[in-house]
Write a structure and sequence with these properties.
- 41% of the residues lie in helices and 0% in strands.
- It is mostly helical and 115 residues long.
Length: 115
């Protein structure tokens, strides 16, 4: 008994295929200008946080999405904000590191420490 011939698939609409492959490489990030980037005053003792939870969550999402270290994440978020024409400050890597421990948006790549 001989093997059956493998099926041959032929592409008939190359322009549609090429357009779909080009779209795969596009990146679109929406930034809502109404988002509260600065943290509201809480009225508690101690230094208040500078950045809101949504700002930290945005930075951590960029970190996870592009698999970046925290220093590079801060640079990428700064460039994204600059491209969007927003003059918002960006949290530095130490702030991101400290706030990611208590944030609800945890990185799936984070390795738990023994501390």
């Amino acid at each position: 008994m001989s093997k059956p011939k493998p099926a041959r698939y032929r592409r008939t609409n190359w322009s549609t295929c090429n357009a779909a492959l080009r779209k795969r490489g596009s990146l679109l990030i929406w930034l809502d200008t109404e988002m509260t980037w600065h943290a509201p005053r809480e009225g508690r003792a101690g230094r208040p946080p500078v950045f809101s939870n949504s700002a930290i969550q945005f930075c951590l999402s960029i970190k996870v999405l592009f698999k970046l270290p925290l220093r590079q994440t801060a640079g990428m978020v700064a460039s994204l904000l600059r491209l969007a024409g927003l003059d918002w400050p960006v949290a530095d890597y130490s702030t991101l590191c400290r706030r990611q421990k208590t944030s609800r948006c945890r990185s799936p790549f984070a390795v738990p420490t023994g501390r």
